[in-house]
Amino acid sequence: MITYTIYVIDDERIIRDGISTSLSPPYRVLSFSTAEDALVSMSETPPDLVLLDIGLPGMSGIQALEEIRRIHPDTLVIMITAYEDAQTVIQAMKLGAYDYVIKPIIMDALEMNIAHALESIRLRKEVRQLQQQYLQENLPCFVAESNAIQDVMEFISRVAKSPDTPILILGETGTGKELIAGAIHYRSPNFMGPFVTVNCAAIPRDLIESELFGYEKGAFSGASALGKRGLIEDAQGGTLFLDEVGDLGPEAQAKLLRFLENGEFHRLGSTRRQHVRTRIVSATNKDLSLLMDNGLFRRDLYFRLGVIKVKVPSLNERKEDIIPLAQHFLMEFNRKFSRDFTGISPQAAQALSSHHWTGNVRELKNLIERAVLIGRGPRIEADDLGIPEPSSSDRPDSSFSSIPAAGVDFPALERAFERHYIEQALILSGGNESEAARLLNINHHTFRYRRRRLERE
Fold it and tell me: Angle at Cα 218 formed by Cα 212 and Cα 219, nearest 5°?
C-alpha cells in the first residue's frame, strides 16, 4: 500500500493544527512554523506534498519553494496565501508550484486539491515500483565493485531518466557496452517498452538501411511482397541499441541523423513520412574522431548520437573487479555444466590479476568457461586457465646500458624511445591510431597528442 507524507509549513499554529487534524489519517502529516525547520527535516524524511504559506517569517514561501524544487524536484507544492496577490501567485506558479489556496482555507476544497495532486504522485510511485521489479527480473548482472565502474553506473542512473536523449557508449571490445545499454533502458521511463539490439557491423552495408528503417513491397530486388517493419519501428516506446555504430555506411548515417533530429523517417520505397518515439543508444570501440577526420563518419551525427557520452573503463582499469567477475562466471558455468568448483586458487587468482586483458570481460568469461570445462577441481588452478607465461618482452629489461661518467642525454633517449614504439604501433595497427594506442596501453587522445608532438620536433 502506498503511503503519503504531507508537510504543512505555516507560521499560524491554528492553521497548522487544523490542517493536520483534518488530513491525518489517512496521510502522515508533519507541521512546521518555519521553512528552515522543514528543509532540515526533508533531508531525512522527504515529503510527497508540501502545503506552503507564502508569508513566512525568515525564509519566505517563495524562497522556500525555490529550494524545495531544487533539492526535491518531484515533490508537489501547494501555496497558501492570506489574500489573492496575483503577482506573487503567478511567480509561485512559474517557479513550479502545483496549485494555490487562499485563506481562510475551505478544507473540502483543499482536500480535493490534495487528492488530485496525490493521484499524479500515486501513478509515479507505481511506475517506480514496477521499474524496481523490472530491474530485479530483467537487468543482466553487472559486477561493479571498483570505483571506476561504480562511477559509470551512478552516472547512467542519472542520465537514463530522460526518455529520448541519445547516449553514446565508448569503450574497448568486451567491456560490457551492451550491459550498460540495458542498464540505461531499464532505468529509463521507457523500461516497459522493447529493448532492441542491432550489431551494425554484422549486417551488410547494403542491407543495414532496410533493417533499420524497413521497406515497402517491391522496394528492391528480393524484397518481401508484404514489406517489412524496421528495427526503429520495433523499438517504438523503448530503446534501440546500435552496437558498433561506427560501421554504418554514409546513406544509413544520413537517414539516422534525420531521424534523431525530428523522430521522422521513410521506409525504403515509400514517400509516406512516419514518426516514432524511441531512444537511440549507440556504442563503438572505434575512434570516431579518426573516422571523422578521414571522412568516414559524419561529424553532425556524432554530436547528435553523443548528447550524453558514457566511457566504459577497460578491465585493466578496474583490476578490483577481476576476481569478483571470475567468481561470478564460475558460479554461472558451474550451473551450466553441472560442475561443483568451490572457488579459485590463490595461484589462479594471481594469474588473473596480473594478466593484461586485451579482450576485457569477454576474454575473462571465456577463460573461466574453459577452466570449468577442463579443470579437475575442486578449485580452478592456474594451469586450467591457459594463460601464457609472460614473454621476455613483457618482463622488465635488465640489459639497459650503464650511465657513463659523462652522463646521458636523457630527454633525447626518451624521445627516441617514444618515437620508436609509436612508429611500431602504427605499423602493427595499419595506421589506426585507436588500435595503436591500445597496443601501447594508453588513451588514444594521449597517443594522438604524443604523435603530433613528435611530428613537430
Answer: 40
Q: Which long-range contacts (CB under 8 A, 24 or more apart) does 53-56 make?
A: 53/9, 53/10, 53/11, 53/12, 53/15, 53/79, 53/80, 53/81, 54/79, 54/80, 54/81, 54/82, 54/85, 54/88, 54/92, 55/11, 55/81, 55/82, 56/9, 56/10, 56/11
Q: Which residues pair with 6 in a beta bridge?
A: 29, 49
pTM: 0.58
Question: What's the rounded Cα separation, in Å, for the pair 63 and 102?
Answer: 19
Note the pLDDT tens digit of each residue in 128-187: 666 556 555 445 556 667 888 888 888 988 888 888 899 999 999 889 899 899 889 888
SS3 20: helix
Query: Could you tell me how many residues make up the chain?
Result: 457
| Domain end call among 130, 159, 177 | 130
Do 59 and 196 reside in the same domain of the chain? no
For position 12, which CATH number holds? Answer: 3.40.50.2300
